[in-house]
Amino acid sequence: MTQSSKTARLYTFQRTPVLELFDADGRYLPTWPGTGVMGRHRTAYEFVSRYMCKIGLSEGVAPPVWTFETDPGELELLATMLLSDHELSQSDYVTLELMVPENRILRTSYSAWCDLYFSCLETGKIEDDGKWLDCSPTDEYPSHTAQAILPYIMKKWVRNVVPLKIPKID
Questions:
Q1: Cβ contacts of residue 127 below 8 Å, gap of 6+?
Q2: Which of 2, 64, 128, 133 suits 110 as a labelling partner, its CA being 20 to 30 A distant?
Q3: Helix 39-54, helix 110-123: angle, nearest 10
Q4: Which of 73, 57, 38 is nearest to 108 (CA)?
């Protein structure tokens, strides 16, 4: 893979302790126990991890990091869509703004990923028709919001850290 000077502004929602999990080289590499992803959920995530290894983005042993390329004004809505009330009640979250080299990013279709993921939850198997790699905009997945998957996060990519505050709807 060639080095590229192009970068993309991405956002990710992570549990607050992520800020203490960067190693001596300044890299945060998620762990399976740290994410709590198990069972059929893990089967789906391992599929992405193996795919990232296949295309040379990772070693395929760690969970991927989900990020999004979106307008900053859409972050609260995006967080509301992605994080459950249960997740938000279990831990504090931060929004990380990242500037990531293009050659570290796998862009995929969020809606097609959800189809693949929920099918795996039902069947325990991955049935990949390749559509999850299609990041064309749809009504539910607008052109100004793109799912971008990373193999890890480098501290030098972090541009801003903001506590995630999602207003409760009563």
A1: 116, 119
A2: 2
A3: 130
A4: 57
Tokens representing 41 are 């959920």
Identify the burial level of 3 via C-beta atoms within 10 angstroms of its C-beta, where 0-12 means exposed, 13-18 middle and 19 or more buried.
Answer: exposed
The CA distance from 79 to 88, in Å, is: 10
- What type of residue is 6? K
User: Shortest CA distance to 30 belongs to which of 54, 79, 84, 66?
Assistant: 66
The residue to which tokens 């509301």 are assigned: 80
Type of residue numbered 37? V
| Residue 14: Cβ within 10 Å count | 21
pLDDT band at 24 (very low <50, low <70, confident <90, very high): very high
Contact 49, 137 (CB under 8 A): no
Note the pLDDT tens digit of each residue in 6-16.
999 999 999 99
How far apart, in whole angstroms, are the C-alpha atoms of residue 70 and residue 10? Answer: 7
β-pair type (65-69, 146-150): antiparallel
